[in-house]
């Protein structure tokens, strides 16, 4: 009989090593397929490296891609630390984008900093309330937060769709589903001639905040205790309900900030399909990194790199997008499988009397 | 004198041949080339253009999201030395304009938008003409007088197509109605198929669609109903029910643009070609269509090409019965490009 058991203890070093090896295995499988397609491996690695780090321009593009992933992953990680499964990062991003856009479009301000601050605040509050609702339902009625946050994604996306197809539509936009372009006052400033915006600073700041709150503060410890053993937490006098609410609001508010940086830093307007699934990728990142702050940073960077490598594969080798998606899938698969074997072991036991 | 002119002409001709600029042409696609529809049609055009002698290389990137990613992909193409770049979805308009500012030596052509710049032109086809013709066929073939229309997004391009189609339907069958279901997606076979099924469930016996994939055709085929495709000749997806499809022949336009850019005569403009240029057409009609209807379609096609039938001519009522275009008034291109109402006979809603 095959049994799956949880590993009781394992060393941190072994964990990192296993993750690294599963990553290498994923790369090797992908490379095997690429070799099969007749692509020189050294050449390929050179090209991917060049397209991501080869010039200041390409590196900034990598960072631009990383910003929403990083912010959403931080948001998701807040909740995951407590084993509260906030799957609604995508919807929270949309709500944040919406709130920021409403400020940018309807509030006439002349001060750039005040405008940006208000947009930031609006996104955080709107996202916090949006996801706080799921927290409230969990606390008051014990409704499963996975279902609520997941379904609220669709609601958020449809609300944004409704508005850009209706009331928020740019009157000069030939009836296309785009809001008016923001004025320069509502745009995040960029570094030099690149598209990299100050949202990266916000993302790093949030990461540091996350590190301090979750990994250094007493409160972070409480949250982790609630996550690993709610009964012990209750016994120790930790107010679980209050913390669920706080964590959900924080988690949603932070995720919503990714919407704020996308509309004010990159798109400069509200539109249909703001995000190609950053909120969902963030769940994977939070998982890969074990919600460790440094891990979140590197996993986000890695995911952004995978996205850009997709461009490289298409542009230089005309590999169909479905193959590109398959490679991304293979990498995730090996990483998650590795993770499974780190935490579980499979034992073969002969049944007695059999 | 004549000799001189002749000499000059020959000289200019050879000069042109010698100095025709070599082109590396890049394409940005919104879906995968295997979608069997919109992107597939563009890719057929690309392949046709690639045969021109001065086109050295063509390259595409597929499934590029219409947002922040588009700017990066277009920039990459320009940086890698592509000197003519086609961006083939509405959402690429602002990214195209933005990138064009940084690459003055590259010519950009954007499909289905309305903005131009020194090195950016836009292009599209008067698909509504072919839609009107397919409407005539639909109106003649329906028995239940309910026709289903699976539509992507309530934007002018799609609304124009639905209206032209309905006008075609009603020109032969004033009792028929066209029911519209919005999917809110260009490319999602599962959603498209659900929408098609829901239309069949409410009694539609003929479907058509404005989507990027043939899912609607498969749904109709399965229930043994007639269907009119879009984008490319889709008969292989519905061998029995397929009647025809308004199709794109992008190759006509891509070859023309490439030639102009190569010999230096290209200027930024808004191109909106119709049936007359062959950029749009109807796929070969199914033998199931009676010959008198085929004849009628041919006559109407001739009238559209000659300019006798402009399709959107008053009096036109919207679907609440209000007159929106007074008698004998022909809608201007500007009005067509920003169309935001359904004509009488369409059952569906547009958010205002």
From TrEMBL, chain A:
InterPro entries recorded: ABC_transp_permease
GO MF terms, alphabetically ordered: transmembrane transporter activity
Location(s) in or outside the cell: Cell membrane
Protein keywords: Cell membrane, Membrane, Transmembrane, Transmembrane helix
Keyword Ribosomal protein: no
GO cellular-component term (any): plasma membrane
Membrane topology: Multi-pass membrane protein
Transmembrane domains' residue ranges: 20-42, 62-80, 92-109, 115-137, 146-165, 196-214, 244-261, 273-289, 296-315, 321-342
Top-level division of the source organism's lineage: Bacteria
Protein name (record): ABC transporter permease
From TrEMBL, chain B:
Record PANTHER family: ABC TRANSPORTER SUBSTRATE-BINDING PROTEIN
Annotated Gene3D superfamilies: 3.40.50.2300
GO cellular component, one term: plasma membrane
Identification of the protein by name: BMP family ABC transporter substrate-binding protein
Organism expressing this protein natively: Calditerrivibrio nitroreducens
Keyword terms: Signal
Organismal lineage: Bacteria, Pseudomonadati, Deferribacterota, Deferribacteres, Deferribacterales
One Pfam family hit: Bmp
Keyword Transmembrane: no
Superkingdom in the source lineage: Bacteria
UniProt domain ABC transporter substrate-binding protein PnrA-like: residue ranges: 24-308
């Amino acid at each position: 009989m095959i049994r799956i058991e949880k590993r009781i203890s394992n060393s941190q070093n072994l964990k990192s090593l296993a993750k690294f090896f599963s990553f290498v295995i994923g790369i090797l499988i992908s490379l095997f397929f690429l070799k099969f397609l007749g692509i020189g491996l050294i050449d390929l690695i050179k090209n991917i490296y060049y397209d991501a780090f080869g010039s200041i321009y390409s590196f900034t593009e990598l960072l631009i891609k990383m910003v929403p992933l990083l912010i959403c992953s931080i948001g998701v990680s807040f909740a995951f630390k407590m084993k509260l499964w906030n799957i609604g990062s995508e919807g929270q991003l949309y709500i944040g984008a919406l709130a920021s856009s409403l400020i940018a479009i309807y509030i006439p301000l002349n001060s750039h900093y005040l405008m940006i601050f208000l947009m930031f605040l609006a996104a955080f509050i709107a996202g916090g309330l949006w996801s706080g609702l799921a927290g409230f339902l969990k606390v008051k009625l014990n409704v499963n937060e996975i279902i609520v946050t997941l379904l609220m994604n669709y609601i958020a996306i449809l609300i944004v769709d409704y508005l850009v197809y209706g009331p928020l539509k740019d009157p000069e936009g030939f009836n296309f589903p785009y809001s008016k372009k923001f004025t320069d006052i509502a745009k995040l400033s960029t570094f030099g001639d690149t598209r990299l915006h100050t949202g990266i600073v916000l993302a790093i700041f949030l990461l540091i905040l996350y590190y301090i709150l979750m990994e250094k503060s007493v409160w972070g410890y409480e949250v982790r205790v609630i996550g690993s053993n709610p009964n012990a937490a209750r016994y120790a006098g930790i107010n679980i309900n209050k913390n669920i609410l706080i964590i959900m609001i924080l988690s949603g508010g932070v995720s919503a900030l990714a919407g704020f940086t996308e509309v004010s830093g990159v798109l400069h307007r509200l539109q249909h399909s703001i995000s190609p699934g950053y909120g969902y990728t963030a769940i994977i990142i939070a998982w890969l990194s074990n919600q460790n702050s440094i891990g979140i940073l590197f996993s986000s960077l890695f995911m952004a790199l995978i996205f850009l490598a997709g461009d490289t594969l298409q542009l230089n080798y005309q590999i169909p997008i479905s193959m590109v998606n398959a490679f991304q899938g293979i990498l995730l698969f090996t990483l998650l499988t590795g993770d499974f074997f780190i935490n579980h072991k499979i034992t073969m036991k002969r049944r007695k009397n059999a | 004198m004549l000799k001189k002119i002749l000499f000059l002409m020959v000289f200019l001709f050879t000069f042109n041949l010698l100095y025709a600029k070599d082109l590396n042409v890049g394409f940005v696609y919104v879906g995968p080339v295997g979608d069997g529809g919109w992107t597939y049609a563009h890719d057929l055009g690309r392949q046709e253009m690639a045969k021109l002698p001065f086109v050295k290389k063509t390259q595409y990137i597929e499934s590029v999201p219409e947002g922040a990613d588009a700017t990066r992909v277009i920039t990459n193409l320009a940086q890698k030395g592509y000197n003519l770049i086609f961006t083939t979805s509405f959402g690429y308009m602002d990214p195209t304009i933005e990138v064009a500012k940084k690459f003055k030596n590259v010519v950009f052509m954007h499909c289905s938008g309305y903005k131009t710049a020194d090195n950016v032109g836009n292009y599209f086809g008067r698909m509504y003409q072919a839609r009107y013709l397919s409407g005539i066929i639909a109106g003649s073939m329906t028995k239940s007088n309910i026709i289903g229309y699976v539509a992507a997004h309530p934007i002018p391009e799609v609304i124009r197509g639905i209206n032209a189609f309905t006008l075609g339907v009603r020109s032969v069958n004033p009792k028929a109605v066209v029911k519209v279901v919005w999917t809110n997606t260009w490319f999602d076979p599962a959603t498209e198929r659900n929408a098609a099924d829901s239309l069949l469930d409410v009694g539609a016996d003929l479907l058509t669609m404005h989507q990027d994939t043939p899912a609607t055709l498969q749904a109709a085929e399965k229930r043994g109903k007639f269907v009119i495709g879009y984008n490319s000749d889709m008969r292989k997806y519905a061998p029995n029910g397929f009647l025809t499809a308004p199709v794109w022949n992008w190759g006509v336009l891509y070859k023309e643009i490439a030639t102009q850019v190569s010999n230096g005569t290209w200027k930024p403009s808004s191109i909106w070609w119709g049936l007359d240029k062959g950029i749009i057409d109807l796929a070969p009609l199914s033998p199931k269509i009676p010959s008198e209807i085929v004849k009628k379609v041919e006559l109407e096609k001739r009238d559209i090409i000659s300019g006798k039938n402009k399709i959107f001519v008053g009096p036109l009522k919207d679907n609440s019965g209000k007159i929106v275009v007074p008698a004998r008034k022909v809608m201007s291109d500007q009005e067509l490009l920003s169309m935001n109402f359904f004509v009488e006979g369409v059952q569906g809603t547009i958010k205002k």
